[in-house]
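Re-run with default settings, no changes from the original entry. Doing this only to confirm the output is reproducible before filing.
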Amino acid sequence: MKKILLLILFLPSLAFGQVFTRNDNAFDGTGYVVGNGNHTNSMGAVDSNGRLGVVVVDSQSGKSAVITVTQTVAASAHSAGDAVGGLITLSDAVRSSALSGIIQSVSVTDKAGNAGSYDIVFFTANPTATTVTDDAAFTLNDADITKVICMAPISTVSTFADNGVTNTTGVGCPFEVASGTTIYAALINRSAATYASTSDVSVRVSIMQD
């Protein structure tokens, strides 16, 4: 794995000790500390003897993925509680099989400019017992409830002349997949909306990957 070595100088005269490779993020008398990229509070630390701190940062951690999916919707009126499009497949949500991530934000764009709101439900695996059908009431089957990562409310769409967009930040839903790299979602209308085109609605999800 690729590493980045950061060397931070604190004192004019420093003693150097043996480099340790264990991932304990703390000095043990050598003046060296090893971190994994998630412990930046260790950077710049010096032990009681004024010896130099070295932090090894894992350059592979903290990657973000932004996934955009255009839903296929009926060009007609949708009632509150209806699914908007079918099941959403978020491919490559994690970097490799059976890893984890955190859903950070969700955006919905609406070319028809409906000034409504949505909920979006995320799943760690395909909710095979639940049918997600556009323009039909969304009902979660009991068999799939353990697959739910979270349900995120999406605020009212801000409309422009003939379209609109909404962005929900700070979602903060951690998840881990048992296998593969894909998670799933269902978009649910919380107010009546009428779409003019089958490609009016798109969903963009931002994920912090481990």
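The two ends are 14 Å apart (CA to CA). The domain at 63-209 is CATH 2.60.120 (Jelly Rolls).
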